[in-house]
Amino acid sequence: MITCRQAESLFDAYLNGELSDALRCEVQAHQLSCGSCRRTLAILQTTAEVIARDRGEPGLGAEFTDRLLACLERRETAAGATSRRWRRWAIGGGSGVAAAAAIAVSLTAWLMWTPGPTPADNRVAGRIVHAVQLYPIADERMAGPTEDRATLLPVTVGYLARSAASAYRDGQEAINAFAEVGQWGVLYANQVILMGAAEVELSSPPIAEEVDLEQVGSLFELSDMLQTSPAAEEGLELI
Amino acid sequence: MTSIRQAPDKLSARDERRLIAAARRGCQQSCRELVEAHKERLAAFVWRIVRNHHDTEELCQEAFLRAFAALKGFSTEYRFSTWLFTIAYRLCLNHIRRRQMLSGEVDFSLHAGAEPDQAEEVVQSEEARRLKRIIWEAVDALSVPQRASVLLFYREGQSCQEIAAVLGMPMATVKSHLHRARNRLREVLEPHVTDEWSCLRLVTESA
Fold first, then answer.
1. Are the beta carbons of A211 and A231 closer than 8 angstroms?
2. For residue B196, what pLDDT is reported?
3. Taking 50 as the threshold, does the pLDDT of residue A134 lie above it?
4. In chain B, what residues touch A67 (CB-CB under 8 Å)?
5. Structural domain includes residue A199
6. B45: domain CATH number?
7. CATH number, domain with residue B174
8. Which value, to the nearest 10 degrees, does the dihedral of the CA atoms of residues B120, B125, B126, B127 take?
9. Does residue A225 carry a pLDDT above 60?
10. pLDDT: which is higher, B86 or A173
11. Is the pTM of this model over 0.80?
12. Which distant-in-sequence residues (6+ apart) come within 8 Å of B98 by Cβ?
């Protein structure tokens, strides 16, 4: 017969369903004869029951799935447009630098969307650097009046890409921080650091060029922007 | 103990693989079925983490969008729900951090959610409601990893190994989170329980 101390040490494994049949029987037999342990297990089981079955959360709206699928279709359409443009440039339809920009952004987008890094991904990520331009990104909800956007610290796409590349070595969490940037915008470069993107030594200084941007909705929109911005002609470095 | 844990996936593994294969080919109906099979459970999990209905909808939408965007790279060796919850959890963490940076505090308001159904309240005993409220307040006060571990274990019926994959931490860390969460919940509930049998009966009768 096990002691109370021994039984208590087994409670977690018992609740996790990890005990052998023999030990499980020991715990069950012990609680039959020990009021204190019986009470403890009852409390834990009650808590588990409530957590498992009590459904007080608000549900999603009835239109959630329709909105989601509409948004998915828009993104896929945008991705298709970007892909077609990239293919056109790759076969000489545009400047080599602009094509390289598309490659850099597409590869970075690919990194962002791939579910998890493989060793091969990390090698590629470690080599991707693009210092295209500085541009202020303003989150519509945070920036306030339009004129305030000019005062926001610029965030370099290259910095973000390098952070993302480094973050791929450090974990998915930082990659999501980078993805957040593309999705909702970012206020300050420091925030990117705070959100978990690792700092990567810059191999070349970024080139500043303010881009008039209403809202960055996705990396694909960003990609479209890069193709049309004059700054895309300068300073692109693909390592 | 395992009988308490919930949420076998609505879809069988086979049906899920079929839907994923079709979704990869662009079948919107398959995407819809995948969403419908997971959205409420995902929303419940996300809401318990971020405690805001509007944010929950946004985060759930984003989690699904990212899951579908990367569907080609998804290995059907894993369950879609595990992957979806992994993405959602990351989004929740980023959301919480961003919220903390902007406001300087973490909002765990218990009022930012649905009110219990009025009819259900009538039939539940006062004692059971009180104990449930205490339990959920204690769950909300857990750290995010502890809370996520508890929710995934009991709500989603995930194993410690699956939880480790979702939360991106070693299995031993998950077990540590579960252990600490249980201890904390027990400490909170213990003073309110007169005897173990009434406690258990009252709550399970109204569950």
1. yes
2. 54
3. no
4. 61
5. yes
6. 1.10.1740.10
7. 1.10.10.10
8. -130
9. no
10. B86
11. no
12. A180, A191, A195
Please report which confidence band the pLDDT of residue A159 belongs to, taking 50, 70 and 90 as the band edges. very low
Residue A215 within a domain = yes
Q: What is the mean pLDDT of residues B140-146?
A: 93
- Residue B140 domain-assigned (yes or no): yes
Please write the tens of the pLDDT for every residue from B169-181.
899 999 999 999 9
Is residue A131 assigned to a domain?
yes
- Domain holding A48, by residue range, is 4-53
My answer on whether B130 and B62 are in the same domain is no
Considering the domain boundaries, does residue A100 fall inside one?
Answer: yes
Return the sign of the alpha-carbon dihedral for residues A190, A192, A197, A201. negative
| CA distance, residue B10 to nearest chain A CA (Å) | 16
Domain's final residue, options B88, B114, B140: B114
Q: How close are the terminal C-alpha atoms of chain A, in Å?
A: 67
Q: Is residue B87 domain-shared with residue B109, that is, in the same domain?
A: yes
pLDDT at B30 over 90: yes
Which of B75, B80, B182 to mutate against chain A (most A CBs within 10 Å)? B182
Count structural domains, chain A.
2
d(CA B167, CA B153): 12
Give the residue, A216 or B13, on which the prediction is more confident: B13
ipTM: 0.78
Chain A hits for B186, CB-CB cut-off 8 Å, are: 40, 43-44, 47
Q: Quick one: tokens of A112? A: 């962002």
| Residues of A (110-139) whose Cβ lies below 8 Å from B | 113-115
Contact list, A40 vs chain B (CB under 8 Å): 186
Query: B203 and B133 in contact (C-beta within 8 Å)?
Result: no
**Does B66 contact chain A (CB < 8 Å)?**
yes
